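Entry:
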Amino acid sequence: MKNNNKKLPVPRFEYEGKKLTYPVKKVFFVRAPKKNEEIPLSAWANARRATPAETKRFRKAYENTFGRKPPRRGRPFNGPAKALDIHIKIRPDVLTRVRAEAHRRHMGYQTLINEILLRHAA
């Protein structure tokens, strides 16, 4: 492998009419990963975080392109919960029978337990 001592071009970025320059130590070209192939950590070694100005610019570009604000990060809010997560103790033989009955009816065993409780509690 040849060791070329050529100077690498310095990338230039424009933010709202201002030109900024970032010095580059080395440029690594990593091939695109194949399907189901992990990206090596070395590929991210020279990555940098987006500046607040870049983030603002990207959001504006998204709004101009799609006509709406970009989606928020994280799990979306789905409104009030349909059911609460609880913990109960059930004898193993009862659970086995409930699961068998639920399988026979082609439904989930927790749904069957919920129906039984609704029938007897009402």
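The chain has three helices and two strands.
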